[in-house]
Amino acid sequence: NQDEDKVIEYMDELEFLALTAGATVVKRFTQKLTQPDSKTFIGSGKAQEIREYVKENHINTIIFDDELSPSQLKNLEKEIEVKILDRTNLILDIFAQRAQTSYARTQVELAQYQYLLPRLTRMWTHLERQKGGIGMRGPGETEIETDRRIIRDRISLLKEKLKTIDKQMSTQRQNRGKVVRAALVGYTNVGKSTLMNAISKSEVFAENKLFATLDTTVRKVVIGNLPFLLTDTVGFIRKLPTQLVESFKSTLDEVREADLLIHVVDISHESFEDHINSVNQILMEINAHQKPMIMVFNKIDDFTYEKKDEDDLTPETRKNISLEEWKKTWMSKSKYPTVFISALTKENFSEMKKIIYDEVLKIHISRFPYND
Ligand code: GDP
Fold this sequence. Notes:
This protein has 13 helices and 8 strands. By secondary structure, the protein is of the alpha/beta class. It folds into 3 domains: 2-85, Rossmann fold (3-Layer(aba) Sandwich), CATH 3.40.50; 102-160; 178-367, P-loop containing nucleotide triphosphate hydrolases (Rossmann fold).
């Protein structure tokens, strides 16, 4: 069943995110609803079931694979009586752990406060309960207002700070002159950093967890005497919190201002086509979808498939598609130059370099038409 496969895949991804954030996942809950409950996101029966499980097994956190509204969060915490994180919260937490430069840290802090602001009352309810509640309403309200004001001030300050850095970065980008700029884009964990390392022979942090890359790295690369700049960008992900899309504006500017996009895909991943769609969606959102692009299908060394017997009557699944068949379909379907490689074993590297060279050269020639 396709829907069930999707659910499992989404839950796998969420578990991977949770692991990245440092959590240990012990149990998954799913529910089929035509639409989320406006008050509690899940139905009350399901909430009860979770509540019992949490009590029996001394669970300290529940994570939802969606952004919950401030009131859903509040109601759920009341009902289940345990710390609740939503997808946005979790992703922000991972970004916070991984931000390395002051720029990235400022971006994450801004996104966190923007997330927090409409959810402040929730924290207050807890305090109120602790203090006994009665008669606390007046001073409580005042305190929330004070907190809100402090946070709003902080948000303006961070925005100012980012604006200044944005300006500096934009000047830096302009100063790079007319050298062709290529940007690696792709879903998170597809091998962009690994590829960057392999192409530029410099060390960029690569790790088998989500979001190893938070800050953009720019490297000068030379292929066949042709120099160009290569940027490694933040990994795209399904349902990237809007707060992050906004605050990572400058990171995404690298993509927006690139001359050429190198779209890296993990072909060993079962839902690589969904990943491609997510990436294209974000490219569309930042208006970068019409740039020249190269499709690089990575991790062919890790690709597996189950060949079916001739007399096997069960329907074909995507597991039965061989790499050759994928190549055939993608090569003919894609309007972009396409190549299948392994960044790890460097299989087909010269073919990829040739393609990159050709594309960079085209842009270079259009820019310097009289320089033969
Ligand atoms: P990024 O998030 O897109 O920058 O991905 P990374 O470069 O950090 O790589 C994510 C994981 O995939 C790491 O564990 C890499 O070692 C692994 N990886 C990258 N390229 C390949 C490849 O060609 N084959 C295999 N098997 N693993 C790869």
